[in-house]
Write a structure and sequence with these properties.
The complex is a heterodimer.
Chain A: E1 5-16, E2 23-34, E3 38-42, H1 49-57, E4 64-69, E5 72-73, E6 81-84, H2 96-100, H3 102-106, H4 111-124, H5 140-152, E7 158-162, H6 170-187, E8 190-195, H7 198-204, E9 207-212, E10 217-223, H8 238-253
Parallel strand pairs in A: 3-8, 3-9, 6-7, 7-8
Antiparallel strand pairs in A: 1-2, 1-4, 4-5, 9-10
Helix pairs in contact in A: 7-8
Chain B: H1 4-27, H2 38-50, H3 53-85, H4 87-102, H5 109-116, H6 120-144, H7 148-156, H8 161-198, H9 204-213, H10 217-245, H11 250-253
Classes of the chains: A alpha/beta, B mainly alpha.
Chain lengths: 258, 262
């Protein structure tokens, strides 16, 4: 890889409990992610991908191994990281705009300075006319877009996304995938994206890292050579089908899909 | 949900009940010290208000209730917060909380009057004691109900415990706290009145007690009317406050969360 590594993980292992009853959630995970790369982890539930993300966010600690962001070992949550969760996780007592500015408030940055950024991001996500609305007045897809905008507002270098579209219906999900690609192509953040949808993984990723459970480990690192911007019709091409089959076979072979 | 004609009917029904009461009490010549007629109650009310007797005593009871309420709310919020945020404090205080919870707080009134005398202080303390508990329980429940994902979000931003408290836990607990405050308001009136029953120099509860000794039942009923208007006033104020503060809470838009019941 020619690009500078934004994330470097080596020999990462995570166990819950001790002794013979210990559960190995992650076993000897190693990978590195280049600056501006869109990396997708795909795997069935229980493969430890959410645990891995938690460690990268700095909310959990590895039992063994090292994880570095921008060359620094992760010791806790970092200011240059934005996180998007499975649910939108908005505060109902804050307006859309105030929800987006939450990281600014928490990080004690200047609200005035970031107001323009927040508005710009909202308009990019098609939410301009909703900034004075409250989250409960928006649809699920719009709420999740607010969550993504919030993760970007303090201009983090790294965006960590934990199955952000898992709770949405199939149509909204496809639209959100396109939105995300557009936002990413404009901002070129380093993205770690977690999903259990194989098509979503292939559609979005520069690289797909396939994980299998018990214990969670990476079984293959697939570079997706489909030119961008990709639209939904890409899913009908033989090349796309080829990638999807490769991932599915890997998951089948390891008995991850019952 | 009901049209104007139903509101008219409801009013007519109320009038009919009062007239029926008046008629039955007169027809069967029920003694006034058992069940006075509504007209006698009205006369007592007017007389009491005009003489200034009810007004001056009502002020005393209102002041006791309000001060007791404030004291109770202050204690409940602070102790509730400490218990909710510190497992250790909860562990040590738990036996006391359980004991206090299962005890009828008004039963403390006689002791409170012995400790704090016949003046206002004992009524304030009694009101605070009765108001305190439901609000503390709700404060704890509200602060503990914080969504773990929202907590993760705050932690992922490296939020300090104080930021987590003020930006997330406290606003999140507000619906519970407001429900508790609603109960506390009514309870503090109960606490003040009971303490006045036990022994007081002034107040509506003291008036009821002395009227009881002289078998002035119409007078007692007239004071009950004043007291229920107090309760009504409290709940109107709180409903307005809730509408302003909890516009975002789905369950208070549909009137759901309730506190402990008397």
């Amino acid at each position: 890889m020619t690009a500078k590594a934004a994330i470097r993980v080596h020999g990462l292992t995570k166990c819950y409990g001790v002794g013979s009853g210990a559960l190995v959630a992650l076993s000897d995970i190693g990978f590195s992610v280049g600056e501006g790369e869109f990396t997708v982890f795909v795997g069935p539930s229980g493969c430890g991908k959410s645990t891995l993300l938690k460690i990268l966010v700095g909310l959990d600690r590895a039992t063994a191994g090292t994880a570095e962001i921008q060359g620094e070992a992760i010791t806790g949550p970092r200011r240059d990281t934005g996180v998007v969760f499975q649910s939108p996780v908005l505060f109902p007592w804050r307006t859309v705009l105030d929800n987006v500015l939450l990281p600014i408030d928490v990080l004690r940055l200047d609200r005035k300075q970031h107001l323009a950024t927040a508005r710009e991001l909202l308009s990019m996500a098609g939410l301009s006319s909703f900034e004075r609305h409250y989250p409960w007045q928006l649809s699920g897809g719009m709420q999740q877009r607010v969550g993504i905008v919030r993760a970007l507002v303090h201009d983090p270098k790294l965006l960590l996304m934990d199955e952000p579209f898992g709770a949405l219906d199939a149509l909204t999900r496809e639209n959100m995938n396109m939105e995300l690609q557009r936002i990413w192509m404009e901002h070129r953040k380093t993205v770690i994206f977690i999903t259990h949808s194989i098509t979503e993984a292939v559609l979005l990723a520069d690289r797909v890292l396939v994980m299998t459970p018990r214990p969670g480990r990476i079984v293959r690192d697939i570079r997706i050579d489909i030119p961008r911007p990709r639209d939904l019709s890409v899913a009908n091409t033989p090349l796309f089908g080829e990638y999807v089959r490769e991932v599915r076979e890997l998951l089948n072979a390891t008995g991850a899909i019952d | 949900m009901f049209g104007i004609q139903h509101h008219v009917l409801r009013l007519l029904f109320m009038v009919a009940v009062i007239l029926g009461w008046e008629f039955l009490a007169r027809f069967f010549e029920v003694p006034a010290f058992i069940l006075p007629t509504p007209s006698a109650i009205a006369v007592a009310l007017v007389r009491g208000v005009q003489s200034g007797l009810y007004i001056s005593n009502a002020w005393v009871t209102l002041a006791e209730t309000f001060l007791g309420f404030l004291l109770g709310v202050f204690l409940a919020l602070s102790l509730g917060t400490v218990v909710a945020l510190s497992r250790r404090t909860e562990f040590y205080l738990y036996p006391f909380i359980v004991m206090f919870q299962s005890m009828p707080k008004v039963a403390l009134a006689p002791i409170v009057v012995i400790w704090f005398g016949l003046g206002m202080t004992s009524k304030v303390v009694s009101a605070a004691l009765v108001a305190f508990f439901p609000l503390m329980v709700n404060t704890i429940a509200g602060l503990r109900s914080t969504d773990p994902d929202r907590l993760s979000l705050m932690k992922s931003l490296n939020a300090s415990p104080l930021q987590i408290f003020t930006m997330l836990q406290l606003p999140n607990a507000l619906p519970y706290i407001m429900a508790g405050i609603e109960v506390a308001m009514i309870f503090s009136l109960i606490g003040a009145i009971v303490a006045e029953f036990v022994g007081a120099e002034a107040g509506l509860g003291m008036l009821i007690q002395s009227m009881n000794l002289s078998l002035d039942v119409a007078g007692q009923f007239s004071i009950l009317i004043i007291l229920s208007f107090f309760g009504l006033g409290f709940s109107v104020i709180l409903r307005l406050l809730k509408k302003k503060m909890l516009f975002w809470d789905a369950s208070s838009r549909s009137e759901k969360k309730g506190g402990e019941v008397a």
